[in-house]
């Protein structure tokens, strides 16, 4: 009699419709494609499909090891340099000339506007670097004309010239010996683009397509990008390293971490990026696959040595001892990190194993403070970075824990935080007493930690927020950068780290792990030491589940 | 009717003036100037700004190296698809629930429905969306968690309305892709429609109850008409008018809700694009997005006002 029956019919129809759609069997095409399609739930949209133009890890992940290759790369799992597009190289005795011999038969991708007629040669290498280097280059101003990595690393000053020796040989001339140069060439910005494609685009007068319809030599060919939705790649059958085993690769852009985990749990993605500690805990309990590598990063507490009482090394040592890092590791990182004893992570070849870890010891800290003349304590500021980063998921919480630790030795701490941009600007001005910050390395060379963070030059203008300038230390890292003998370099770095520990301009807190979650049937996934994901060896193992790849 | 158009036209012009003035002032505040102005004076620059807008030059995103209008138009169809379905859900279910409640006034059904709608009305969208995902996607496995379509369907974007595009690729996938896209729409649309649905249900109930007290309804009842006929034929048409006006306000609620909903369900629409722009300080995109969404709300309100006036003679000619 009322409207009830009608509504009930409607609801029933809708619900049964729902159930029907979901239970509907997938078509044949669909199930075949499922086997060769890999879905990676990524955390954000890339800014451009050319790693030269960007500086975010998300953009590098989407380009550097899918579409492109570099001249050199890392041996998997280490920070040792291995050949990639370059077959071999020679460094001149004075360390200023690097001559690379290119691999034969390296094919470029094609698309509807471009069919490559030749394989990789020296012109492509010269094109890729000159576009960034020379403001007169026809492609320099395309897509904004900014090359953040190239210029922030001072490569415009370092690279004097690039010469074509022969079709398959190219020579870089440097303004000074710079031993990290090979490691720099393994970074995403050094990806090699096609000069032939650039010529075609000049003919079409569509120069900007070089960055939006990318052509590279990598294992996957770019197919389509829907902004904020997905990136679709296809396997490149003629890849010089062998065709990938999967046919289609999709980056599904899912910025919310909880939702990413939900999609992963529902099987909508095969691999999930940037899981939160809580996801890893759930994954462990449920015996899911976690791929975890010690991260190439460091979180630290820097003391501003220009501000008393931090000019006194005893104060710095005392405060370092007063902090319970075990507790921080548990509460802030949920154990997804290891305690840092040096700015350089243990996976680096230059890591100093001899340097001992600072022990948490309140009594000794008090005693040191008394020796320095501060038995009644003092008040300091701790500046805590306001944003979340892999190396420090929660600086605020960390600062609060440190506040309590410091109170035990009579030091009162105030926690200070600003909006991120303001925070960095003020810290750069040196307005802080002490600051909680961190660093993600962009290449595998130890110089990438020590030079930008602790050199005298960077204390004047740069990322040395301890404002610590030690002439001996500075000389050691300079020598290390200029020597091309790896054994000598290692000795310099070992001494530098020992000196750093004595002087204690920072308390090194942690190296956070980089982790991914994978479905049980995914095998062959590799994370490069600096944290980029590589899919070219991935395949689906339909049989038994592979052994747990947890390396912790 | 002519007077009516003039009256609404004036309101429209005033809102447009206020809106563009606001975005213009905001654009002066950003880090980098979005447009280059010839004039030195504020009003002169404002007029030039309007010219730029009319010419389709809404600024240039320094982060994406693209005109922002292009980005906006790429994201817009996804939002429209979601908003339309949510609005449809809100109206159909809101009306039905409101009528059911009014029909059973004071009975347990009425009380339950009003309690439920009050809960729906005060539901934080983010939490509610997550809850729905937990139940329907993760526990029951009926619906997908997020996205617009399963990636096994490689549907090229033509119109950027997934429902249409999936039909266009029918040769390859039959209707599978279309149903899959529809399935992906359900949870986001329910999440987004919950609050407006609750509001519409409550409005329908109170409006209908008001109308049911009128003399002519008593006359109709005394003539022996059935309750069904009284409600559907006589009462509803008059009860609908205030609801129509309220629906205009719902559009602005939906537009603010769509930002959160798109974020939760990784829905590649304007909301997700705007949030990204905010987090990256892409001022050009933020302004264009705000301007476009506000224009949309104004246009919707205007259309609904006109419709309400058309349906209600009393509004047509103000005394």
Automatic annotation (TrEMBL), chain A:
The record's SUPFAM superfamilies line, in alphabetical order, gives: Periplasmic binding protein-like II
Residue intervals of the Solute-binding protein family domain? 81-458
* Taxonomic superkingdom: Bacteria
Check the record and name the Pfam families matching this protein. Answer: SBP_bac_5
UniProt KW keywords: Signal
What family does this chain come from, according to its entry?
A: Belongs to the bacterial solute-binding protein 5 family.
PANTHER family (UniProt xref): D,D-DIPEPTIDE-BINDING PERIPLASMIC PROTEIN DDPA-RELATED (PTHR30290:SF38), PERIPLASMIC BINDING COMPONENT OF ABC TRANSPORTER (PTHR30290)
What this protein is called in its record is ABC transporter substrate-binding protein
- Please give the organism: Kangiella aquimarina
TrEMBL record, chain B:
**Segments traversing the membrane:** 82-102, 123-142, 177-200, 239-266, 286-308
The protein's location, in the record's own words, is: Cell inner membrane; Cell membrane
Is tRNA processing there in the keyword field? Answer: no
Ranges for the ABC transmembrane type-1 domain? 76-308
In the bilayer, the protein is annotated as: Multi-pass membrane protein
Keywords, A to Z?
Answer: Cell inner membrane, Cell membrane, Membrane, Transmembrane, Transmembrane helix, Transport
Family membership: Belongs to the binding-protein-dependent transport system permease family. OppBC subfamily.
Can you name this protein?
A: ABC transporter permease subunit
């Amino acid at each position: 009699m009322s409207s009830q029956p009608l509504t009930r019919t409607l609801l029933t129809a809708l619900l049964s419709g729902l159930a029907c759609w979901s239970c509907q069997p997938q078509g044949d095409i669909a199930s075949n494609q499922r086997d060769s399609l890999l879905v990676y739930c990524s955390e954000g949209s890339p800014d451009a499909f050319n790693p030269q133009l960007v500086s975010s890890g998300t953009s590098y992940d989407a380009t550097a090891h899918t579409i492109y290759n570099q001249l050199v790369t890392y041996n998997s799992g280490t920070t040792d340099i291995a050949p990639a597009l370059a077959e071999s190289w020679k460094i001149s005795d004075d360390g200023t000339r690097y001559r690379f011999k290119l691999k034969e038969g390296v094919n470029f991708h094609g698309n509807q506007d471009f069919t490559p007629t030749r394989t990789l040669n020296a012109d492509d290498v010269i094109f890729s670097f000159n576009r960034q280097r020379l403001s007169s280059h026809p492609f320099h101003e395309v897509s904004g004309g900014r090359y953040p990595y190239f210029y922030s690393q001072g490569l415009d000053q370092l690279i004097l010239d690039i010469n074509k020796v022969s079709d398959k040989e190219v020579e870089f001339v440097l303004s000074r010996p710079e031993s990290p140069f090979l490691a720099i060439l393994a970074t995403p910005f050094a990806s090699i683009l096609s000069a032939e494609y650039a010529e075609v685009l000049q003919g079409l007068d569509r120069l900007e397509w070089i960055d939006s319809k990318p052509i590279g030599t990598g294992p996957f060919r770019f197919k389509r990008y829907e902004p904020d939705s997905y990136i679709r790649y296809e396997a490149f059958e003629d890849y010089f390293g062998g065709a990938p085993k999967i046919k289609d690769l999709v980056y599904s852009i899912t910025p919310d971490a909880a939702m990413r985990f939900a999609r992963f749990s529902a099987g909508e993605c095969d691999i999930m990026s940037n899981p939160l500690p809580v996801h890893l805990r759930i994954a462990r309990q449920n015996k899911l696959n976690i791929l975890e590598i010690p991260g190439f990063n460091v979180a630290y507490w820097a003391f501003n040595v220009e501000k008393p009482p931090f000019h006194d090394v005893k104060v710095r040592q005392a405060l370092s001892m007063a902090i319970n890092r075990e507790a921080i590791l548990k509460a802030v990182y949920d154990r997804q990190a290891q305690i840092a004893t040096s700015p350089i992570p243990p996976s680096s070849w230059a890591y100093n194993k001899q340097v001992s870890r600072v022990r948490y010891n309140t009594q000794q800290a008090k005693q040191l403070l008394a020796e320095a003349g501060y038995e009644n304590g003092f008040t300091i500021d701790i500046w805590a970075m306001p944003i979340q980063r892999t190396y420090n998921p929660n600086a605020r919480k960390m600062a609060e824990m440190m506040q309590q630790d410091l109170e035990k030795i009579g030091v009162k701490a105030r926690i200070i935080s600003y909006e991120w941009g303001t925070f960095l600007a003020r810290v750069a001005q040196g307005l802080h007493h002490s600051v909680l910050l961190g660093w993600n390395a962009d290449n595998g060379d130890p110089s990438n930690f020590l030079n930008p963070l602790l050199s005298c030059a960077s204390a004047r203008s740069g990322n040395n927020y301890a404002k610590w300038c030690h002439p001996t230390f500075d000389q050691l890292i300079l020598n290390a950068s200029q020597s091309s003998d790896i054994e000598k370099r290692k000795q310099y770095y070992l001494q530098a780290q020992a000196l750093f520990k004595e002087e204690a301009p920072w308390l090194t807190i942690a190296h956070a792990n980089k982790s991914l979650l994978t479905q049980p049937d995914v095998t062959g996934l590799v994370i490069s030491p600096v944290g980029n994901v590589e899919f070219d060896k991935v395949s689906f193992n339909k049989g038994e589940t592979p052994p747990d790849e947890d390396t912790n | 009717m002519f007077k009516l158009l003039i009256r609404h036209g004036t309101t429209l012009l005033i809102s447009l003036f206020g809106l563009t003035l606001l975005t213009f002032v905001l654009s002066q505040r950003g880090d980098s100037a979005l447009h280059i102005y010839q004039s030195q004076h504020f009003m002169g620059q404002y007029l030039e700004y309007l010219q730029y807008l009319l010419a389709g030059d809404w600024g240039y995103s320094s982060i994406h190296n693209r005109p922002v209008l292009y980005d906006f138009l790429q994201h817009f169809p996804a939002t429209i698809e979601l908003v339309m379905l949510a609005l449809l859900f809100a109206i159909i279910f809101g009306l039905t629930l409101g009528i059911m409640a009014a029909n059973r006034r004071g009975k347990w059904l009425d009380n339950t429905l009003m309690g439920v709608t009050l809960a729906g009305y005060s539901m934080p969208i983010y939490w509610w969306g997550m809850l729905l995902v937990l139940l329907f996607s993760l526990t029951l496995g009926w619906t997908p968690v997020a996205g617009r379509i399963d990636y096994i369907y490689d549907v090229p974007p033509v119109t950027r309305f997934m429902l249409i595009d999936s039909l266009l690729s029918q040769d390859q996938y039959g209707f599978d892709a279309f149903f899959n896209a529809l399935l992906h729409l359900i949870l986001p649309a329910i999440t987004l429609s919950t609050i407006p649905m609750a509001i519409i249900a409550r409005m329908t109930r109170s409006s209908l109850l008001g109308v049911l007290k009128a003399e002519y309804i008593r006359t109709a009842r005394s003539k022996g008409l059935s309750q069904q006929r009284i409600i559907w034929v006589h009462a509803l048409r008059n009860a609908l008018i205030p609801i129509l006006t309220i629906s205009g306000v719902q559009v602005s609620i939906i537009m603010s809700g769509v930002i959160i909903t798109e974020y939760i369900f990784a829905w590649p629409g304007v909301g997700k694009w705007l949030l990204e722009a905010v987090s990256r300080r892409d001022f050009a995109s933020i302004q264009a997005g705000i301007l476009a969404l506000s224009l949309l709300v104004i246009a919707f309100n205007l259309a609904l006002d006109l419709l309400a006036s058309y349906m209600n003679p009393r509004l047509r000619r103000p005394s």
